[in-house]
Amino acid sequence: MRYALLAALVGLSAGCGSTLTIRHLDATHRSAEVMVNGEKKGMLTYGESFEMPLEPGRYQLKVTAPGKSTSPWHPDVDTIDVMLEDDAVLTLQPPRPR
To answer: pLDDT per residue over 72-98, tens digit each?
Structure first.
């Protein structure tokens, strides 16, 4: 896969709710806008992270540069479908050379 988005969706703990943590580690794209199921959830700048409590279930994630409709981290898809069962971490990393 050549996606610059590293989606480390790894179960970290058991419990009733889940937490999705977004980490921005891409200095080549200073800001990122996060949407879950079409709703804007927040903005990150390089080096920041934030946590969103979510119930277990299916979600559509979209991460773009502010004001853009496509993503530098996953340019070939509009949204990422995720089945969240436990805590998960999504890390934005610089694109790999093609």
So the answer is: 888 888 888 989 999 999 999 987 776
